[in-house]
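Allow me, if you will, to draw on your knowledge of protein folds for a short while. Thank you for your consideration; the sequence and its tokens are set out here:
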Amino acid sequence: MSNKGITIVYWVTTIFVAFVGFAGILNILQLESLVKVNRELGLPQYLMPFLGTVKVLGAVAILIPGFKKFHEAAYFGFIFYFIGATYVLIANGGGLDKYGVTILIIVATVISYRTFLKRKMHNATVQY
């Protein structure tokens, strides 16, 4: 794949992952519909603002270049978060219709991270 193609795939997947991360604002606000879902899954309500804050901070870390030290940690944080979410959904008897979205988010996060590394390697080899 050309560098331009890698860049396009990177930004499409990164914006998708960041959008998912910024949706953590809904957890922070503790919308009643999300509180109900968490209750049905057996998750404590007090966890919602913390997880929402972590997701928003992760989204900021993958979008802003100045947070290079946190960039990779944010990717792994998203992967661990959504592996955990997938596990909770499966453990509660959910089918693919329930956890398919979390699998999609994990795949998008991995693709975003891999293309991030490819872009980083390409930029390191470019002579100015």
